[in-house]
Amino acid sequence: MLAPVLRKIIQNKTVMIERYLPSKGNLFVQKGDILEPFQKLGDCMHSPNTVYFPKEFEPVKFLREKVYFQKGSLIGKIGAKKVTADENGYMSFDEVSGEYFYEDMPVKFTLLSGLWGEVSDVIPESSVLIKTVVAEVDLVACTPNFSFGELVVFPNPTEILEKFYLESFVKSTEGKIVYVGHYADLDTIKKARDLKISAIVAGSADPVGFSFAKSANIGLGVVSGFGKLETPDFVYKLFNSVAYRHVFFHGDLGVLRIPMSGVEEETVSSKKKKTPLKVIKKVTKGQKVQVLQKPHFGKIGTIDRVSVSSIFVRFDNELGPVEIDLPNFFIIE
């Protein structure tokens, strides 16, 4: 009997990752340098927040040059509504769009490597191209966002625990990438938006929540699919082992890239490395499978035995093996 293989983690030795400054600045590395995650690549002065006002915005005075305002100062009106400066900064006029915009005072931005690797190329005052090793976790569905941030890993919780963890981390989740458990419902995704989380990863989500994330420009990636599906245990263990490491959410590529050190790379099973891999395999006892048959849809278990046109699968919370018909399952690696 043959079945399709869903390969969730792949090791890739030749990934090139670009780290760039948000504004022109200074870079302190050169081609051939060996990097570690907390090594400083460069710095620049950068405004952390820029707000464009609608066409109906009326400034306190006509201006075309950059004008400084203090926090709390009146800078204009939109209809009858007064607009004040949230922070010290500058208001300017964009000649191309014909809109006024406000920039917070520039602050020093420090660019860290965030990974182990070797500098492959440097674009002066702009960016660094790094050759590195990553573990790529396949995301079967994700919004087309890109983000980079610290990975926060929650347990695979019940819905009540999930909300408790989000509330508990309210002061520390901004700009981070958060694994929220087996299932991300609409309320969790909305909470992630409110907390300014960079991206969330879950075992599964529903189409409504996914559509909301896409429309709200929130990074959302699911490991197993739509519905209430579990995250494979070995994927969750990988997340746990690299918690609080900086990772890369590539929605356009459908992967979560986790930088790995040379020592960690040596411990990765050879079957997870970037070599020619089969898309179907012979079904054998002991393989991990994800089931697509009710009432066990989405569950992951271990093959106990194989018959002519079905398999018998053991789940953690079941007393005995459950028969699953071909083709209602795929092999998980």
Short description:
This protein is mainly β and 333 residues long. Helices cover 13% and strands 45% of the residues. Among the domains are: 48-105, OB fold (Dihydrolipoamide Acetyltransferase, E2P) (Beta Barrel); 140-253, Glucose Oxidase, domain 1; 283-332, SH3 type barrels (Roll).
Describe this structure in words.
- By secondary structure, the chain is mainly beta.
- Among the domains are: 48-105, OB fold (Dihydrolipoamide Acetyltransferase, E2P), CATH 2.40.50; 140-253, 3-Layer(bba) Sandwich (Glucose Oxidase, domain 1), CATH 3.50.30.10; 283-332, SH3 type barrels.
- Helix content is 13%, strand content 45%.
- Strands 2, 4, 14, 15, 16, 17, 18, 19, 20, 21, 22 and 23 form a twelve-stranded mixed β-sheet that branches. A seven-stranded mixed β-sheet has the order 24-1-29-25-26-27-28, with no helix packed on it.
- Strand 14 (117-123) and strand 15 (127-138) form a beta hairpin.
- Mean pLDDT is 85; it is low at 266-274.
* Overall shape: elongated
The CATH H-level superfamily of the domain at 140-253 is: Phosphohistidine domain
**Rg calc:** 24 Å
Biggest sheet details = 12 strands, mixed
Q: What structural class should be given to the helix and strand makeup?
A: mainly beta
pLDDT averaged residue by residue: 85
CATH class of the domain at 140-253: Alpha Beta
CATH architecture grouping of the domain at 140-253: 3-Layer(bba) Sandwich
Separation of termini?
17 Å
Proportion of beta-strand residues: over 45%
Low-confidence stretches: 266-274
CATH topology of the domain at 140-253: Glucose Oxidase, domain 1
SS element count, helices: 5
Protein name: KOW domain-containing protein
